[in-house]
Design goal:
This protein is an alpha+beta fold. The chain has a single domain, classed as HIT family, subunit A, CATH 3.30.428. Helix content is about 30%, strand content about 20%. It is built from three helices and five strands. A five-stranded antiparallel beta sheet has the order 1-2-3-5-4. Helix 2 crosses helix 3. The radius of gyration is 14 Å and the shape is globular. It starts with a helix and ends with a helix. The structure holds adenosine monophosphate. Adenosine monophosphate (AMP) binds next to loops.
Length: about 130
């Protein structure tokens, strides 16, 4: 059965898309740890990120770097942090989490409320600042 993230790539499940190329897709996390929390995924469905071939992991990392650059330009955090965990969704993904304050709790356990309208605007802002 296709993962929830494959269904997002295929448009079966809606998402706040921020970027896509031939091998990758990026969209806002629906339970964000900070405004602009973005997930970068390979289109190839694989559970464990370190089961990707080295060239695939490298390409996902480069794609994520470009998305992080877009987040930095759009939202002006101090920097964008990265978490890879993957205990909830069995489709490899990189969490990009903007850090706005040095005291910000940096954890997937911490969530912020963002309205539907806010999510649409954040995705648009990030999308406009990404150069792939
Ligand atoms: P983890 O597998 O623990 O690294 O985290 C999976 C992440 O996917 C969580 O932060 C969820 O909030 C996020 N997530 C789950 N379903 C969706 C969805 N339909 N759209 C966006 N993000 C999602």
């Amino acid at each position: 059965m296709a993962s929830i993230f494959t269904k997002i790539i295929e448009g079966e499940i809606p998402s706040y898309k921020v970027a896509e190329d031939d091998r990758h897709f990026a969209f806002l996390d629906i339970n964000p740890a900070a405004k602009g929390h973005t997930l970068c995924i390979p289109k190839k469905e694989i559970d464990y990120i370190f089961d990707l071939e080295p060239n695939e992991l490298s390409a996902l990392t480069k794609f994520s770097q470009n998305v992080a650059d877009g987040i930095d330009k759009a939202l002006k955090p101090i920097r964008t942090g990265i978490i890879v965990e993957g205990m909830e969704v069995p489709h490899a993904h990189i969490h990009l989490i903007p850090i706005y304050k040095e005291t910000q709790a940096f954890s997937l356990g911490k969530k912020v409320d963002v309205s539907e309208d806010g999510m649409i605007k954040l995705a648009e802002q990030i999308r406009q600042n990404i150069c792939l």
